Amino acid sequence: MKRVMLVVAYDGTAYHGWQVQPNGITIEGVLNEKLSELLQEPITVTGASRTDAGVHSYGNVAVFDTESRIPAEKISYALNQRLPEDIVVQCSKEVAPDFHPRHCDSRKTYEYRILNREFPMPCRRLDTYFHYRKLDVERMQQAADYLVGEHDFKSFCATAAVVETTVRTIYNLTVEQKDDIITIHVTGSGFLYNMVRIIAGTLLQVGRGERQPEDIPAILAACDRSAAGPTAPAHGLTMIGIEYI
Any residues with CB less than 8 A from the CB of 153 and at least 6 apart, and which? Predict the structure, then answer.
């Protein structure tokens, strides 16, 4: 028996998120099906991030155990021949039997992209959130600075989430604009359910002038989901990758 790690990129547009659902096609479900066919044994992968419906990834991490004699590094090549074109394994390798993608210390990075222009651009409709009102990127960055560090992010967590603690650490959070694309880039120790999308929704309010950057400490202190902004649409979010430390 060996444990194999996959780094998986996908366009989440056509899927009901990562996690297996009873009534919908998911990334995890497709991986389980295709790996089971390839390796001729029942396979169930465990993912690092259970991304929502419509969310994309450049490098989500998943592991599975197998009795197969196929070298771990060769599994990515064989699996990609079976996967649909919107899911591609970037690499596969053997890891320690006790490696767990969610329980090992890591730094996760996400980007939320906003298309900020007068009219939509059809070719960016699936991976950016279109917003026609001019946004003040400088004010958004000022607000973002307050979120860096270790905080209780309960105000930035979906109310339905069940977690042991809502304390998380954000190592880096930048808001940058290049041409018509505003990118919110965030790296942290881990993220609560909808946390990045709620941060994006709150920063959008700041960018429109509906909130002040100085409001962020009070939002954090409230520990109340209703204190923060709306949850930004899923399709603007992409998991960039995970670094294990």
Answer: 166, 167, 168, 192, 195, 220
- Tell me which of 11, 52, 127, 215 is the catalytic residue: 52
Do 203 and 209 meet the contact criterion of CB atoms below 8 Å apart? no
| C-alpha closest to that of 152 among 227, 225, 226, 221 | 221
The answer, as to whether pTM is greater than 0.70, is: yes
Check if 52 is active-site: yes
Question: In a structure prediction context, what are the per-residue pLDDT tens digits for the chain, which is 245 residues long?
Answer: 999 999 999 999 999 999 999 889 999 999 999 999 999 999 999 999 999 999 999 999 999 999 999 999 999 999 999 999 999 999 999 999 999 999 888 999 999 999 999 999 999 999 999 999 999 999 999 999 999 999 999 999 998 888 889 999 999 999 999 999 999 999 999 999 999 999 999 999 999 999 999 999 999 999 999 999 999 999 999 999 999 98
Classify residue 34 by its DSSP letter.
H
Nearest to 194 by CA among 234, 224, 148, 238: 234
Q: How many angstroms separate the most distant Cα atoms in the chain? A: 59
Convert 35-78 into a string of H (helix), E (strand) and C (coil).
HHHHHCCCCCCEECCCCCCCCEEEEEEEEEEECCCCCHHHHHHH
Written in H, E and C, the secondary structure of 120-156 is CCHHHCCCCEEECCCCCHHHHHHHHHCCCEEEECHHH
